[in-house]
Amino acid sequence: MRAMWKGAISFGLVSIAVRVHAATEEKTVRFRQVHRDDGGRIGIRRFCDDCDREVAYEDVAKGYETDDGLLVVVGDEELAALRPPAPRAIEVGRFVRVDEIDPILYDRTYFLEPDDIAVLPYTLLRDALRGSGRAALARVTLRQVERLAAIRVREDMLVMHTMVWPDELRVPEFPFLSSPVVVPAPELARTTSLVDAMTDRFDPDDERDEHRAAVLALVATKVDATPEGAVASVPAADAAATSASPSEVVPAQPAPRRPRARKAA
After folding, report:
1. pTM for this predicted structure
2. Is 10 helix (H, G, I), strand (E, B) or coil?
């Protein structure tokens, strides 16, 4: 694994040097948008509605649309001045019980690997969290964005979950929630009995993405059935970019989309 971030877990007077590794990888089958007749790739055009012409990449800026429909252009320099400092530290603010964190708040998961000189304090923190059933609630800056994070124990590793901010969680507003239903006791007993009968231990190794396997089998069949030389090969640069994830087809290019916001006066 290649570390994506290096720093330290910091709390009190303790500092534990760690390397952060992505704990998961996406294996969704991806497709490019291509011309059906000749397989040519469909590219992205940056098009301006006002001047009715294509715009060079270096002339593209960021715009924020306000609630009343005004479009405010914000420069990269202005945004850079607002970015939080990026300390190489995972700053632990407090410790909480693991079951107090709703899993719906978890976003991405990372393995925390200790530096050679930090194995002992890393192990001490791991065992203390495991024994107390607690997680460390922290803040960390990844890719210039400050994130809320939780550090907990999984097997013999410390794992870090980046989390969504509480105001990013939608409030479920559905009509049925305002009309309580009286549940008949016999029906509840039968449903509970069925749940008990179908209860088993969860083994992730038993689960398989059947749809992805079927799509890849379809692609392999079409490759085998295509006469040699009838289909253009992937350029070397794209082949190298996708070789680390053999289950993915060449990444898709999004379709062109024109901005809908109107410019501020």
Report:
1. 0.70
2. strand
- Give the pLDDT of residue 245: 39
Give yes or no for residue 216 having a pLDDT over 50.
yes
How far apart (Å, rounded) are the C-alpha atoms in residues 265 and 261?
12
Query: Cα–chain-centroid distance for residue 152?
Result: 18
**DSSP β-ladder status, 5-11 and 89-97:** parallel
Token readout for 227 is 């006469």
Distance CA 262, CA 265 (A): 9
* Residues 6 or more apart whose Cβ sits within 8 Å of residue 75: 61, 62
Average pLDDT value for the chain: 83
For 44, residues 6+ apart whose C-beta sits below 8 A from its C-beta are 253, 254, 256
Q: How many CB atoms lie within 10 A of CB 69?
A: 9
The residue that leads in pLDDT, 228 or 260, is 228
Euclidean distance between CA atoms 20 and 1, whole angstroms: 10
Phi, psi of 127 (to 5 degrees): -70, -35
- Looking at residue 237, its pLDDT comes to 52
Comparing C-alpha atoms, which of 25, 32, 6 is closest to residue 17? 6
